[in-house]
Structure formats: structure tokens, C-alpha cells
Amino acid sequence: MMAVGLLLGMAVVMVTRRPPAEVSPASSKPESKPTTNATLHEPRRPRLPAPRLPQTPGPGESVPEAAVPNPLAKLLKGEVLKLTPEQAEAYLQQNKRSAEALLAAARLTRNLSLLREAAERFPNDPRVQLDLALRGTTPEEKRKALDAFRQLARDNPLGDYLSALDHFKSGRTDDGVKDLLQVGGKNRLQDYTHDHAQSAEEAFLSAGYGALESKAAAMFGVELPHLKSLRELVPQMTELRKQYAQAGDANSAQAVSQIGLNLAWQMEGQSGRTLVGELMGMSIERNFLASQSPDSAFGSDGRTVRDRLAELDAHRQSIRELTPLTDMLARIPEREALIYFDRLKLHGELDALRWLKNKHGNP
């Protein structure tokens, strides 16, 4: 009996030392058993390969602005912004049918009646008369506008050059020579290209296009009809110089060459000039220098005609190296593209391209 009592006492002691079982709250559910063979104490590992996560910029990071093409991409591929007649009319009303607005609407819609309206309403605006002299449909209309332009812009040699061309083509050579003699002392050739571009930009903005689109389309699409006329004048002058030389009148032949060189330098020296105008001026200069001896003096600094021709070749090559930079305009930040066109209007296309190269290097 004593032994049995001892065994019962030991059993009670062992039961009282066993840790109490954890009781879950009545509202909780039994924990599900893991389906893997890992033990509860083994750290769980993510499966591989992992699912792809969406790419988002991290703290302090941003997507480069030039990663998305700006609005110039389509324009550089040749797309042209258009102005509907309704948009043109709204633009005209907004600007009270001013001379600038009528000129822009006439050019962008190719509506000659708007240009004639401008000539009737603003007969003393040289820009209007010059445009009508270049775009009129009859010789009489064009000649009348050209005479008006020459009276309104007496210091602009462009009118004299255009008048000479008209006389040469009509067989009135003496009158053409008299026009060329009027050029002397007129050094600032004004073609109003940037006036037209500015008005076109404002017209596109009024039609709802963006700032960069409007600025670029206005400059890319600006028409230069006066260059076609000046290009036609050069062979006329070249033939005139040749006829003087064959007649033994070396002084007159040299005078015609000098007038041709003055035309070239006026085109090359225009403020805010376009590359096409500058290249054309260089071509005209080369044309009239070709009639002179390569070893003859060019200027008063010791250079020769041969030296000047070499300079023209080098300058033309530098332009060729810069022109591919325009493709970069579709990839640079929009704010920098806007600066490019502002520089183009202020300082010319060549200066703007040099700025682009200094900013971003070669394409």
C-alpha cells in the first residue's frame, strides 16, 4: 500500500509540472498546416523565376523629357500643318483683318483674293505690294504692285533687282540696266521672311496648334518666292556681262560683275537669314568670281580670288556638316527646340544650328 501511494504521488507531481496547453480564442480558426515539407522554423523563399514588376521611376528619378518624340517628328518627315478656310476667317476676325493677318491667311490658304483685299485696304504696306508683285496672275497686276513697292521701299534693292528681271525678260535691256544702276548704295536687302513666319505662327496658334508645332511649321513652311526671281536674274546678268566683254567694253562687264557680287553679299549678310538664301548667295558670288583671274586681288587685305573661292568651299562644307543636326530637333526637350527657333529668327539658321551642335554634339 505504501508503494502504491508513492507511485500516485509521483504521478501528481509530473502532471503539475507539464506546461499548460495554449487555448485559442473561440472566434479563431485552427491554423492551416503548411503544404510544403518545410518546417515551421525554416525561412520561406520566393519562387524563381519571379513575376515581372511594372517599371516606375524611383525616388528622385524621372523619365528623360526627350524619351518621347516632341511634335516636330511629323513635321521633319514632311507633314504640313494646314489652316482651313474657317480657321483662317476666325484668325482674320481676331486680328481685325490687319495687313499681317491678310497676308498670312492668303499664303496659308493660297487664296489670292485675300491678298488683293490686303492691297486694297493697305496700299502703303510694302510687304503687301511685294507679295502681290510676286504672286499676281497677270503681268500688269505684278508690274503695278512692283512699281508701288519700289516707291514705298526706296532703300530696299530687292525691288530694283525684280524690276531689272522683268525688263530683261521683256526684251527691254536698257531699262533693266538702269534698274541695276539704282542698286548702288542700297545695302540692306529686306524680304520680310520673318514677318511672314511670325504671322503664320500666330495663325496656327489661333487654330489650336501647340506652341512648338506652330513655331516650327511657320519657319519650315515659309515660302520664298523672291529667291526664284533672283535665281532667274543671275543668268540674265551673266549673259549681259558676256555681251559687254565680247563688245570690248571691259569696264561695263566688270561693273555688271560687281553688281552681281553685291547681290551675293547682300543675301549672305541678311540678318536672320535662311540657309537656302545664304547658299544661294554663295553660289551667285562664285558665279561672278569665276569670270575673274584667280590671282587677281580680292579686297584690300592681300587675299586673291582663289583664296575667296577656297573660303566659299570651306564654308559650304561646314554647312553640309551642320544640316543633319535638324533631325535632332524631334528628340531634344521641347523647351530647347523652342529656343532653337527663337535663335533662328534672331540670328539666322546657321547660328541656330551651331548652338544646337554646341548643346548636343553631333547627331
Element layout with pairings:
Layout: H1 2-17, H2 72-76, H3 85-94, H4 99-109, H5 112-121, H6 126-135, H7 139-152, H8 157-169, H9 173-181, H10 193-206, H11 211-220, H12 225-246, H13 250-268, H14 275-289, H15 305-322, H16 334-347, H17 349-360
Helix pairs in contact: 3-4, 4-5, 4-10, 5-6, 6-7, 7-8, 8-9, 8-12, 10-11, 11-16, 12-13, 12-14, 13-14, 14-15, 16-17
Task: Please tag this protein with its features.
363 residues, mainly alpha
Q: In words, what does this structure look like?
A:
The structure is a single chain. The chain has a domain at 69-153 and 190-223. Helix content is 61%, strand content 0%. The protein has 363 residues and is mostly helical. The protein is built from 17 helices and no strands. The termini are far apart.
Distance between the termini: 108 Å
Based on CA atoms alone, the radius of gyration comes out at 39 Å
Please work out how many helical segments DSSP would assign.
Answer: 17
Would you identify the regions where 5 or more consecutive residues have pLDDT less than 50? 1-40, 56-68
Number of strands: 0
The helix content is 55-70%
**What general form does the structure show?**
flat
The ordered H/E elements are: HHHHHHHHHHHHHHHHH
Mean pLDDT: 85
How much strand content do the residues show?
A: under 5%
Protein structure class = mainly alpha
